Amino acid sequence: MYRFVRAIMLLAAGMMCQVYAQAQNAPRMLIVNHNAIFNYATFFQIEAGGNLTSPTLVSTGGYGTSQENIGGVAAFHSTTQDCFFIADGASNAVAAIDSDFNVIADFHAGPLDFGVNGLSLAVNKEFLYAGFGGNSQSGGNSRMASFRIEPGCNLEYLGSVPAVGLGSGIPNYLATRGKILVVSYGDGSIESFHFSKGLAQSNGDLQKTTGATKQLIAVSVDVSKDGTFAVFGDRDNVHGRPVVEVADISSGKLGQPTVVYRLGSDFLLSTFVRLSPDESLLYLSGGEGGDPPLKTLGAAFFDRTTGTVKPGCFAPPLNDPNQEWGFTTNVAFANNSKGLGATLYVMEVSVEFIGGNQSLATVNVQSNGKSCSFQEAGNSPLTLESGSFDFGTITSSPPRTF
Q1: In the chain, which end has fewer C-beta atoms inside a 10 angstrom radius, N or C?
Q2: Could you tell me the CA-to-CA distances from 341 to 281, 331, 345, 347, 396 in Å, in that order?
């Protein structure tokens, strides 16, 4: 009897180790939410050197909403499963896709949760958070929904709470780490949430940033690895210069007023921010045409101990085969587990009178801690859609390790 039980235990342990190894050795992938009317996602395998191969297109079965400033894709990685979540804003739902590219379902939240104005996503441990932008153009009815990630990539809806900016802004971007979820709203105001058994609840700290008095609009947000700082990417509507703001969240909520960091005289709207996997660089993206044209990608040096930000470098104009002006949305990394993310991907949208192109740039980064530089790959960009005004959003899997 003992030998039989021991054999079963050894077999079970072997199976668990095999599952663990499979999860740890999950292929690196880049995931694109195209935010199309009839929505779909594209999965690329990331090869050595950052090359993208084997594109797999998956129809979500839902309807997207093309929003420039929305983080509508998230990846979940555990020892037992990999799941991918795609915002289907116009369907008021989140599509869950497993590692075999099967669409599990389009999951809905509460009866008051509408995503027509946009739907932002973020993952924290075994929970998914979704900022529903509402269905009223006047704003004021956006909400934060919480889901538990279940086996088989299913989602269990836990509940929703109001999530509305001071000027009725919708949740643009969500960033979460540890015991805090930080939200940037479309009107430039910011707020943080805590969790009660996974359910996000407001900390009651909805506020304007310091830069709001200088016509700086906080659009996106990222949170440092230890949950001490929240970094906001600002849109400078006056000068078009790169600006970020940093908030101390070590108390578990938004504390002192945000600190404004101006990062040079180059024309770049630092609308989207993302910390490198080692936190040494803060990547800035976002820019558009004009006279003079704005740059679309940059980096600043981030001190993870003090939260200070110093000017870094800017990429030369990204390749554009159609010689059109355009702008970038968010970035994702070829390697999320270590280093600077030496190869990163940037979503681009070029603009034409009858429709633009949605494309994906591959850019290599070098830094010695004091200076940095960008070099776009020779085969970049990769055109994803032609004649389209869809604003794609991207992430990579396995996710960044913090």
Answers
A1: N
A2: 9, 11, 10, 16, 11
**Domain residue ranges in the chain:** 30-397
First and final C-alpha spacing in the chain: 45
Please tell me which of 100-109, 261-270, 293-302, 323-332 the model is most confident about, judged by mean pLDDT: 100-109
Taking only the tens place, the pLDDT of each residue in 249-286 is 999 999 889 999 999 877 777 789 999 999 999 999 88
| Contact in structure between 70 and 172 (CB atoms under 8 Å) | yes
Sheet containing 82-88: order of strands: 73-77, 82-88, 93-98, 103-108
Cα–Cα distance for residue pair 376/374, rounded to 1 Å: 7
User: What is the C-alpha separation between 291 and 288, in angstroms, rounded?
Assistant: 10
CATH topology of domain 30-397: Methylamine Dehydrogenase; Chain H (2.130.10)
Which residue is associated with the tokens 């929703």? Answer: 160
* Nearest to 170, CA basis, from 159, 191, 180, 184: 184
Q: What pLDDT does residue 47 have? A: 93
95-151 pLDDT, tens per residue?
Answer: 999 999 999 999 999 999 999 889 999 999 999 999 999 986 555 799 999 999 999
Residue 259 in tokens: 């600190």
